[in-house]
């Protein structure tokens, strides 16, 4: 299952276009990754490059138009390593937290979202190695937000219907140039 390290093929890393609310790919139930091949490595590289270019703390594959279960994250905390999760599952969740949240696919909008306080997420790394993350605070919020993307769920789905209507109204009034 490992990538062949002996034959590193040079491929330019690309900042990809981030898909915005309204793009149907953001609403897809993403498929599981089955092969840790060159295409997956390229996808992970592009996700990281695009996340940093957009100054985000997390980015999921559907946000660059690829409906597979992969996301990257970096909460910019010296104590917390940036990472990649493939086929992640939230296996434990407890407590609650309420903080303002935004999304690179819905720029300009943010709202308080209630999330689990602590989560344990299990999945695979970019080479298929098992990964288990026990997270609280911002990292926990980020892992829940990005996991939602893989099921076609956006943060605006996790606020009250009234708040959602207000957010969607604001979004529809925003000029493309503001996004
Ligand atoms: Zn998002």
Please tag this protein with its features.
alpha+beta; Peptide Deformylase; 3 helices; binds zinc ion
Describe the secondary structure blueprint for this structure.
Layout: H1 38-53, E1 58-60, E2 70-73, E3 83-102, E4 110-124, E5 130-136, H2 137-150, H3 161-173
Antiparallel strand pairs: 1-2, 2-3, 3-4, 4-5
Zinc ion binds next to helix 2.
| Major sheet | 5 strands, antiparallel
CATH superfamily heading of the domain at 24-98 and 114-153: Peptide deformylase
Q: How many individual helices?
A: 3
Q: What form results from the Cα inertia axes?
A: globular
How far apart the termini lie comes to: 40 Å
Percent helix, as a range, is 10-25%
Record field, number of beta strands: 5
β-strand percent reads 25-35%
Q: What is the level 1 CATH name of the domain at 24-98 and 114-153?
A: Alpha Beta
Residue stretches low in confidence (pLDDT < 50, at least 5 long) are none
Give the strand order, joined by hyphens, for the main sheet: 1-2-3-4-5
CATH architecture of the domain at 24-98 and 114-153: Alpha-Beta Complex
Question: Mean pLDDT across all residues, rounded?
Answer: 94
- The ordered H/E elements are HEEEEEHH
Ions and ligands? zinc ion
């Amino acid at each position: 299952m490992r990538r062949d390290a002996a034959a590193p093929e040079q491929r330019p890393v690309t900042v990809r276009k981030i898909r915005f609310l309204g793009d149907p790919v953001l609403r897809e139930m993403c498929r599981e990754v089955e092969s840790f091949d060159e295409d997956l490595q390229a996808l992970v590289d592009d996700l990281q490059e695009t996340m940093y270019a957009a100054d985000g703390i997390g980015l999921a594959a559907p946000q660059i138009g690829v409906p597979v279960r992969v996301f990257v994250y970096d909460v910019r905390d010296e104590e917390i390593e940036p990472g990649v999760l493939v086929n992640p599952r939230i296996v434990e969740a407890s407590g609650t937290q309420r903080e303002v949240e935004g999304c690179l696919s819905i720029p300009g909008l943010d709202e308080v979202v209630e999330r689990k306080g602590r989560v344990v997420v299990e999945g695979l790394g970019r080479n298929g190695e098992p990964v288990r993350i026990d997270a609280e605070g911002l990292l926990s919020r980020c892992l829940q937000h990005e996991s939602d993307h893989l099921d076609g769920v956006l943060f605006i789905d996790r606020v009250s219907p009234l708040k959602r209507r207000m957010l969607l109204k604001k979004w529809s009034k925003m000029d493309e140039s503001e996004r």
